[in-house]
Amino acid sequence: MKRLFIMLVAVLASSIASAETITTESTTDSNITTNGNMTTTVKSPPPSAISPQFSAGTNSDLCTIGVAGAVQTQILGISAGMTFTEENCVRLKNAKTLYDMGMKVAAVSTMCQDEKVFDAMMMAGTPCPYDGKIGMEAKIGWESHEETLRVKHGAEEKTDAKKTATFGGMGLLAFLLLL
């Protein structure tokens, strides 16, 4: 069987080797005329409006909140950013500094500028200091001078930084959408 296969391969190889080469020659003359229009479309991404970066940082000693935003159209890109001071953070830092300097009554007075802290101190029976007086003397002082209760000690209307930041961001977004 093996011999038969080898013989078959030998016969086929010899017949392929003895085949004649066929050569053809031809000459053709042709003229090609093409008329057409070409349009090129370039597709590229639009330029980017990149908003400024405000990072609070993990070890920073700042009481600021950063707000930034950007919008980009095919024609115009706008980016903006701003910071807001967070008043309660400033109050806490001031109270801690006063306490660290040994001025405990002044530290408590600083914290009492917050209406919630003031009310909590009164409800707990430990009123906020009043003109250097503490304890029952301070409570009598606050109760006898209610007109100065909060206005004198900083609880007047203040801008809420969180609401301002939200409104500011929404106002910026609405402005940009109108463009």
Level of helix content?
Answer: 40-55%
Rg computed from alpha carbons, rounded to a whole number of angstroms: 43 Å
What is the distance, rounded to the nearest whole angstrom, between the alpha carbons of the first and last residues? Answer: 89 Å
What is the global morphology? elongated
Give the low-pLDDT segments.
none
What is the element string, with H for helices and E for strands?
HEEHHHHH
Strand order of the largest sheet: 1-2
Structural class of the helices, strands and pairings? mainly alpha
**Strand tally, please?**
2
Beta-strand content bin: 5-15%
The major pleated sheet works out as: 2 strands, antiparallel
Tell me, rounded to a whole number, the average pLDDT.
74
Tell me what you see in this structure.
The chain is mainly α and about 180 residues long. The chain contains six helices and two strands, in the order H-E-E-H-H-H-H-H. It has helices at about 1-15, 85-100, 105-110, 115-125, 135-145, 160-179, and strands spanning about 65-70, 75-85. A two-stranded antiparallel sheet has the order 1-2. Helix 2 runs antiparallel to helix 3 (about 105-110). The radius of gyration is 43 Å and the shape is elongated. The mean pLDDT is about 75.
